[in-house]
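Two entries, shown back to back:
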Amino acid sequence: MPLQLRQPLEPMEALSVEEIPTGDEWQYEPKWDGFRCIAFRDGATVELQSKSGQPLTRYFPEVVEAIRKVKAKQFVLDGEIAIPDGESFSFDALLQRIHPAESRVKRLAQETPGIYVVFDLLAGDDGRSLLEEPLRSRRKKLEKFADTYLAEDSGIRLSRATTDLAEARKWLKMESATLDGIIAKRLDMEYSGGDREGMQKIKNYRTADCVIGGFRYATGKKVVGSLLLGLYDSAGLLNHVGFSSSIANAEKKALTEKLEPAIEPPGFTGRAPGGPSRWNRGKATEWQPLKPKFVVEVCYDHVSGERFRHGTKIVRWRPDKAPKQCTMDQLEQKTASLRRLLQ
């Protein structure tokens, strides 16, 4: 039978919630911090599609080769591309792959090879679409597919899944560079691209006290748009670790009047905010350095490469805290073992 699914295929989306949903109809999985990827195999042809429908094939030749070595000649998998770094994953190494130079991509594929973590089977080895089958059925077929075709050293790994709520709560509590939280999926629902009804994501948030090492003005306005956050390392250098743009419009004028008198180089004495790059997509990159005198407590969800992986939310200002007390050890993590989370 010809492969029934073709690109672009819209992936299922997850609704962000604060509490883990409970009940017999839910299955729980680790939420991997990588690139979402739908993999298509049709004979000798292998294509990797990103969450947004864009091709990833040229950026991960080692993943393409791993999929091509699978003895099944046609199938479609849903999963996450990630790059192992010890007992965790490196998102920074993953970002380095999206590069126009083929020679660089090939070199990095050898130096920092990625793996494909699979969590759903969308078309089986007979080419037939499984989208209309409930997750309960698809998961059983995925596990059988993995047992039949995926060796441990294949570069394709099966993600753990459980219906045990206690186990899911253990995963959520892991302060990990490996996990970005957990995913809850309805066992009784079909695979519905773009639909968030049958899939929920839960993250574990933490807080840190940071020095404001600088700020950026809002685009086209002379008011603060985002705060640049820093932490001191063991050498006493202030390193840029992320940003927060969760500033109410009504507060921006007063905040600008508070910060502008403190503008003074260098701001950050260690790792500083970068300049323009292909990731900024036209966003303003110029920033104003500040004296290290203001401390703010922020809420964050994930750390990668000694930086906040996403933007942070301001919890409160900390005039009671000395800037030098804001150190990098706040970001130390207990790394979840990959062996426990991959089958």
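entry 2 starts here
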Amino acid sequence: MDELEPGIFRVTFALPLGIDHVHCYFLRSSNGGFILVDTSLGTRDAEAKWRPVLDALDAPVEAIVVTHMHPDHVGGARDVAALTGAPVFQGREDHAQCVRAWGERNPEVFAAYWTEHGMPPATVEGLIAESDRLISAVHWVEEPDRLLDPGDEVDGWRVEVLRGHADGHIVLQRDDVLIAGDTILAGITPAVGLYPRSRPDPLGDYLESLRRIEELAPRVAYSGHETPVTDPAGRAREIRAHHADRLAHAEAALNGEPLSAYEVSLALFSSDLSTTLRRFATAESLAHLERLVREGRAVRTGRGYVKAGM
């Protein structure tokens, strides 16, 4: 466990996913205990995973906050709650998406969505198999003790909703520190994809979240992956420029014939991707294509997307 600054501690867990680690944070509370932010993946043996971490603390965990519903952040919520007895807090919108994604999971709808956007049958079958394996590691809490809204406070940390990476992604801010989840990362860009039963314009949402980070201008953002972001406003501008470039490349990939999001993903990303990473690439391509449609730069057709005016 690393102490990043007084009252803020970080523990890192390995992941068997496209990214190989996730950070969880312990924030010293006003009572002298700790608020845990994010919970890694769920596990069959939560005691073995979490007991060494909990025993290294000098006070109990008083609350657990989930920033967003992705498996590496919400997955261990039920595990840690059972070990500590601490209440679980989650964003209201994020929990609703959690219910849709994990509580109302429908493999047939899932398969139809990716097929509609051009994925080959073998790739879709691989995605279903991976999803079946992953669900066992998502130990989400069906009835959180508290649902959080923008402007709420958790022991002096103010809640903001910064959408894009996930529809209802929340962050915590106090003074000039942002506990950022995956809203902003150093060295890599957060994945922004369009998924079934989600908000229709995640890239538009994310660009607004980047604007909000610039406005907040925290001194540091402690993120879910990679190193702390020491100039969050500057990093937000870099990521905004990255997406402007990605939009231009997506528009250039539309060559006159209707193209699916999967086909556009082959032009925007490496052709040598795992099944999981191809899903991310297709979802991100779809988010960029939908933003192009909203900006009047592309048009949807029955078989995909074409450049506007062609």
